[in-house]
Amino acid sequence: MESSQSTLQPLPHGKEIVHLDASFAPLVPKFMTNRKKEVTTMQAALTAQDFETVRRVAHGMKGAGGSYGFDRITEIAATIEQAAKTGIHETIDMELTGLGSYLEQVEVIFDDGVSEG
Amino acid sequence: MKKQKEEKKGVVLLIEDESDTADLIRLHIEQSGLSVVHARDGRHAVDIIESIVPPRAILLDLVVPYLNGFELLKAIRSKSGWEQVPVMVVSGDSDKGDIDRMMLEGANDYVVKSWGIGVIHHRLKLMLEQASLGQVA
Questions:
Q1: How far, in Å, CA of B16 to CA of B69, rounded?
Q2: d(CA A92, CA A2)
Q3: If you count residue pairs, one on A and one on B, with CB atoms under 8 Å apart, how many are there?
Q4: Is B77 an interface residue toward A (CB < 8 Å)?
Q5: Which of B:78-107 have CB within 8 Å of A?
Q6: Do B71 and B42 meet the contact criterion of CB atoms below 8 Å apart?
């Protein structure tokens, strides 16, 4: 339980693998489900030009991703949060597309060898 | 026996609105033998602060609904018996102005969430050890 260091390994065909401590295993399915719901929430908010909701959801996702070791989620969420502060629709739209793809493709490997893909 | 052990190690107050982050932090803290009281927003945190004895430590998210981290830290430090409770700010942001302000206003540590749960857990243990030795700033 002491170490939760994750490593991000981009693969040639675009799929990414994230290694996490085995102690995270019970929490990751809910974590991934909630992130996918948040993408939907942000897409709806963007359509409604509700940048404050986009910013708020992205801020929470930025912290959650970092805590769990999903560095890519944190990077994308930080970009969306910043773009929402200045109302840059195109950037948010592009990053949400990328985030949705990432969440569909990422494979989690726990240090006991169990994977959640 | 487990209950006695938890009571001996004490309680950590966790103020965090993002449920997955709260679950992860709770999991790690409880595996250390400490108990967790979780406040999901600023109002809930104030209710808890008014109703429990001072905890061993507080993990405080800077951005929570209704009251922000600055307001909550002020409430914590102004409550009798809570002046010396170690407070670690756990934030998604690393803004230097926020860090300086929180430390000036009485936080004992500031950790950015992107550093990962391992760092959060390690720094909490250090803070508790320093508090037990009377070294908390």
A1: 10
A2: 36
A3: 72
A4: no
A5: 91-92
A6: yes
Coil vs helix vs strand at A62: helix
- Tell me the whole-structure pTM to 2 decimals: 0.86
Contact B38, B44 (CB under 8 A): no
Per-residue pLDDT of B66-121, as tens digits, reads 999 999 999 999 999 999 999 999 999 999 999 999 999 999 999 999 999 999 99
Q: Does A103 touch chain B (CB under 8 A)?
A: no
Beta-carbon contacts of residue A82 (< 8 Å; ≥ 6 apart): none
Task: Please give the full DSSP string across B74-137, using - where no structure is assigned.
Answer: HHHHHSTT-TTS-EEEEES---HHHHHHHHHTT-SEEEEGGG-HHHHHHHHHHHHHHHHTT---
CA distances for A33 relative to A38, A44, A65, A66, A81, angstroms: 9, 17, 13, 16, 20
Distance from CA of A29 to the nearest CA of B (A): 10
> What is the identity of the amino acid at A89?
H
CA angle B94-B100-B106, nearest 5°?
A: 115
Provide the residue type at A36 as one letter.
K
Q: Is residue A64 within 8 Å of residue A31, measured between CB atoms?
A: yes
Position A13 confidence tier, pLDDT thresholds 50, 70, 90: low
The answer, for B38 touching chain A at a CB cutoff of 8 Å, is: no
Provide the residue count of chain B.
Answer: 137
* Burial tier of B103 (Cβ tally within 10 Å: 0-12, 13-18, 19+): middle
Quick one: which of A35, A24, A30, A89 has its CA closest to A57?
Answer: A35
A 10 A CB-CB count for A11 gives 10
ipTM, 2 decimals? 0.83
